[in-house]
Task: inverse folding
């Protein structure tokens, strides 16, 4: 008797625990059925389905739901993206978009987890840094054939943007926006210091002169800011005629005289003339905060800062093309929509990506919201952008395109960035001389990173 | 004699208050920031009391899409997982404390060993497992791991060991089964430990951020910490919004803690017993 | 006869253990074992893998044996990183023990107003690190934060805490002490409560003053609690993570705050080297396990029981 009782209680305990575990299953199955129901159409009901399509589309399409995730709209542009999607769904009523937006810091952690579990969204956003890693791991759908077969027109897109998202010569993602970096300056501080505003043919020397004048205005007023880490460094090298990786992408060229000159120059701004604040002087404040509080004369920063600065800065400011040294070089950043290699509806996904990235409706919305720049070259869209104020010299953004350089992108991108930035830190704090820092950096990169 | 003890008393309160202030200063900063306007955030000299206090951050917070829903989600997950954990841990603790069986020490050691593993390390395999049993993007995926909390088992076992076996024998003489003894005799005697554990577990579930980030995919299901962290844009952190959110996030826990005060009077019992 | 049957046997114990064991098997043991196999591969973390279907085939495909472990040992980074964890521990432990004991003795007094202190001391424990770490970034700011502000009043020029290679880790210790003090204080309180008041009365009769009572009675009788706190904080010291990630970008100036879990997370999610990260994790477990066993042996020697 007692034994049976015990066995019974064992089974009961097991049953309760297992039912808790499987509690999740029932809720997901109901989820799946409700999202599957619209999908299920048999050939016989084509006429019923066609009642959902507008007169514009011809054949009956079965209802498709696309899952999409992205990060670039977080922090203020969610409404614009929602409007774009609404416009898309009006044009393509048989496609519904299920969108998830994440903060940038968390986005890639959760994306990687999902991809490894086979639960990636149909469309997910990538930036150029992570693109190569995902493409080479086979997580992305090769768009080349589909673009050809569906006759998708990408002619309006900037070639540089398209190229940034090609792998082994094939297109793997559609660029949805681009941004670049310009010189932003505080006109009021310039007036106070009696210095002429920056022009498009300024060089590093001009920055030093103006920076010193503004720095002299006060102890906690700085002349210039340009964060010394990987992203600014490779550009600084280019502005002195150097580069981090050889043109064929096969060798590292870190400790060259041009790069040494670039780094020495930047460090001198911090430690020499101190027109740039040291980390200690910033002590936790971000460079944006410093500029917005009206205590920074010039800052090298991206077009994405225009809207926040317009909202927060209570002084006059404008922009110009970023000064180079021996030559000009400007940044080019881009995000893109990639389609999962396991996507069940790749053609619809391509439609959505291309619409959000390059259609007139979407790009007009983007420009109106000053949410980075559309990767297309429609004149009327661009002129709408140029007409906006704060900053007024928006032409500088498009002029910068003449000098743009793309970042060196390798599969071990994060690791490369961390290595280089750590040696930059050592050089800034003086723990290593500039020559030693770059030499050791070269050595470590050659050992740890595989190129080509 | 009394003068000495009076001085001692004053000294005591000075120290106690200094420590309390040190604990509070960062929190006062949080409160002050949540009432500041964006411009005032970076003003120099630092404004401890905002010159133009505003409720804007709070308004924007509640207007953020998904915020209100996330409070409900967090609440649901926290409450259910606490109940689940208390149940399963007290059952296991009972077995470890009051039932002799072969391999008891070994299994307990296994439990202890698992406490040393930081969760971040198990992430991806855990996600893969959840994915296979179809629990991803469900709140259950956050609740079900509550089945196993070695810390709770440890604390309850300690407590149960202090309960003299005479109680068990008395119940047995009265004809109670082991199960009834557990529910009606032993468990009620652990009320204090259960209450303090409930607070700790609730707080863990409420503030947990990495697991929900990885498991949940639809914004409607997000828990509070995820929504708060999504205010960390790529280039711009809205500090005043974040601090307002953190403040709001702390309120339920504080209320719970205030209610459970009497159980905390005698502290958290863990030591004093061999093994 | 009845009694003995009720309280023994695996069959009796099983239903009580089952929920926890099931949870442990699925959410603890299975992932750890899976990660052991993953550590033998060069999986990047971005390709599709399934634990239940074709897992072993996947392992075979990407098998590289113990190469990950070898490179970790050869690289030497792990020694630096462990050093950082140890540095944290060495700073954290004595401060934590002293402060939480102090806190415990304060809140052990049975006066009404103490209730206020009890709540205040515990509030930091109730905050999440997401908010707490951000707040501490500002508190530690050398130009704008209150800590250097107070130091200035005393006439000391405070360092640039989080931006300085030397002071970054102490800053993390400070923030961690702030957060954990209330919790360990509560545990000490529990230990204090367990001390039989008869001992204190006997000491009073013998004419001992409070310091002597503290040294000869309170401390020794607190030793099991103290040991437990030491054990928890050692494990905790090796597991520090959220405060590192939020307070120090890129793990500190010149990697000063690179610690074990941070490295594992970075290799797994930033550098896309899951196999390497899994190997790192396993070495990490081994170390903690050894430390805990060592502590257990020490316990037999140092802890006094009644």
Result:
């Amino acid at each position: 008797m007692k034994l049976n009782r015990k066995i019974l209680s064992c089974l009961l305990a097991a049953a309760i625990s297992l039912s808790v575990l499987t509690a999740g299953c029932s809720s997901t199955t109901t989820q799946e059925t409700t999202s599957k129901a619209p999908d299920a159409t048999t050939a016989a009901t084509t006429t019923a389905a066609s009642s959902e399509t507008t007169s514009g589309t011809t054949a009956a399409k079965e209802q498709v739901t696309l899952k999409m995730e992205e990060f670039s709209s977080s922090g203020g542009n969610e409404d614009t993206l929602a409007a774009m999607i609404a416009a898309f769904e009006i044009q393509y009523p048989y496609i519904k978009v299920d969108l998830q937006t994440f903060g940038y810091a968390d986005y890639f952690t959760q994306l990687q987890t999902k991809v490894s579990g086979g639960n990636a969204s149909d469309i997910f956003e990538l930036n150029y840094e992570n693109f190569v890693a995902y493409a080479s791991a086979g997580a992305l759908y090769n768009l080349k054939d589909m673009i050809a077969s569906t006759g998708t027109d990408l002619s309006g897109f900037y070639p540089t943007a398209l190229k940034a998202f090609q792998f082994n010569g094939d297109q793997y993602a559609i660029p949805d926006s681009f941004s670049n970096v310009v010189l932003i300056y505080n006109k009021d501080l310039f007036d106070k210091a009696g210095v002429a505003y920056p022009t498009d043919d300024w060089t590093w020397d001009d920055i030093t002169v103006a920076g010193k004048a503004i720095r002299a205005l006060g102890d906690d007023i700085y002349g210039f800011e340009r964060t010394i880490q990987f992203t600014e460094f490779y550009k600084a090298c280019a502005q002195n005629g150097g580069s981090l990786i050889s043109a064929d992408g096969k060798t590292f060229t870190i400790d060259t005289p041009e790069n040494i000159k670039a780094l020495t120059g930047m460090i001198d701004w911090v430690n020499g003339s101190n027109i740039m604040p040291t980390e200690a002087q910033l002590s936790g404040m971000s460079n944006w905060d410093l500029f917005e509080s009206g205590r920074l004369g010039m800052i090298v920063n991206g077009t994405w800062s225009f809207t926040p600065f317009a909202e927060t800065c209570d002084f006059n400011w404008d922009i110009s093309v970023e000064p180079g040294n021996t030559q000009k070089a400007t940044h080019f950043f881009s995000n893109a929509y990639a389609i999962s290699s396991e996507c069940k509806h790749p053609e619809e996904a391509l439609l959505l990506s291309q619409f959000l990235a390059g259609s007139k409706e979407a790009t007009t919305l983007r420009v109106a919201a000053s949410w980075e720049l559309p990767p297309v070259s429609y004149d009327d869209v661009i002129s709408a952008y140029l007409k906006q104020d704060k900053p007024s010299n928006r032409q500088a953004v498009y002029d910068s395109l003449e000098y743009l350089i793309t970042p060196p992108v390798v599969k071990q991108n994060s690791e490369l960035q961390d290595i280089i930035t750590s040696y930059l830190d050592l050089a800034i704090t003086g723990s290593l001389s500039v020559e030693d820092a770059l030499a050791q950096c070269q050595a470590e990169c050659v050992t740890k990173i595989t190129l080509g | 004699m009394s003068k000495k003890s009076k001085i001692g008393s004053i000294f005591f309160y000075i120290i106690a208050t200094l420590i309390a202030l040190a604990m509070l200063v960062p929190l006062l900063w949080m409160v002050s920031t949540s009432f500041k306007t964006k411009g005032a955030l970076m003003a120099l000299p630092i404004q401890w009391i905002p010159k133009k206090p505003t409720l804007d951050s709070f308004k924007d917070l509640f207007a953020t899409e998904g915020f209100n829903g996330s409070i409900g989600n967090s609440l649901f997950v926290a409450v259910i997982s606490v109940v689940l954990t208390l149940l399963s841990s007290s059952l296991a603790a009972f077995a470890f404390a009051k039932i002799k069986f072969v391999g008891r020490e070994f299994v307990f050691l296994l439990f202890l060993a698992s406490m040393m593993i930081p969760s971040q390390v198990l992430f991806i395999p855990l996600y893969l497992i959840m994915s296979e049993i179809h629990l991803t993007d469900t709140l259950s995926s956050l609740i079900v791991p509550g089945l196993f909390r070695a810390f709770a088992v440890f604390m309850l076992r300690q407590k149960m060991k202090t309960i003299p076996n005479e109680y068990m024998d008395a119940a047995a003489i009265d004809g109670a089964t082991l199960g009834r003894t557990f529910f009606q005799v032993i468990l009620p005697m652990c009320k204090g430990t259960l209450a303090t554990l409930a607070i700790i577990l609730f707080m863990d579930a409420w503030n947990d951020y990495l697991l929900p980030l990885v498991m949940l995919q639809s914004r409607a299901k997000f828990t509070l910490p995820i929504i708060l962290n999504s205010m960390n844009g790529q280039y711009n952190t809205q500090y005043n919004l974040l601090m307002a959110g953190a403040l709001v996030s702390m309120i339920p826990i504080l209320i719970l803690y205030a209610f459970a005060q009497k159980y905390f009077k005698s502290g958290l019992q863990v030591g004093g017993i061999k093994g | 006869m009845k009694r003995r049957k009720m309280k023994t046997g695996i069959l009796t114990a099983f239903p009580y253990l089952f929920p926890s064991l099931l949870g442990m098997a699925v959410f603890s043991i299975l992932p750890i074992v899976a990660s052991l196999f993953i550590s033998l591969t060069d999986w990047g973390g971005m390709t599709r893998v399934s634990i239940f279907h074709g897992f072993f085939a996947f392992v075979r495909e990407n098998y590289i044996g113990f190469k990950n472990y070898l490179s970790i040992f050869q690289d030497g980074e792990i020694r630096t990183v462990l050093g950082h964890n140890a540095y944290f521990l060495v700073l954290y432990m004595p401060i934590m023990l002293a402060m939480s004991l102090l806190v415990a003795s304060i809140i052990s007094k049975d006066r009404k107003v103490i209730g206020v202190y009890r709540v205040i001391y515990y509030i930091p424990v109730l905050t999440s690190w997401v908010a707490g770490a951000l707040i501490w970034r500002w508190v530690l700011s050398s130009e704008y934060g209150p800590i250097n502000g107070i130091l200035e009043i005393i006439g000391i020029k405070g360092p640039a805490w989080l931006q300085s290679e030397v002071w970054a880790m102490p800053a993390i210790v400070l923030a961690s002490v702030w957060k954990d003090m209330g919790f360990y204080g509560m545990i000490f309180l529990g230990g204090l409560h367990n001390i039989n008041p008869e001992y204190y009365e006997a000491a009073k009769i013998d004419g001992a003053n409070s310091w002597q009572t503290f040294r000869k009675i309170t401390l020794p009788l607190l030793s099991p609690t103290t040991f437990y706190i030491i054990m928890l904080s050692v494990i905790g010291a090796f597991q520090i993570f959220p405060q590192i990630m939020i307070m120090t970008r890129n793990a500190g100036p010149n990697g000063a705050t690179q610690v074990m879990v941070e490295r594992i997370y970075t290799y797994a999610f930033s550098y896309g080297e899951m196999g390497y990260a899994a190997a790192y994790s396993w070495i990490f477990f081994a170390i903690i396990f050894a430390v805990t066993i060592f502590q257990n042996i020490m316990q037999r020697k140092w802890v006094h029981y009644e």
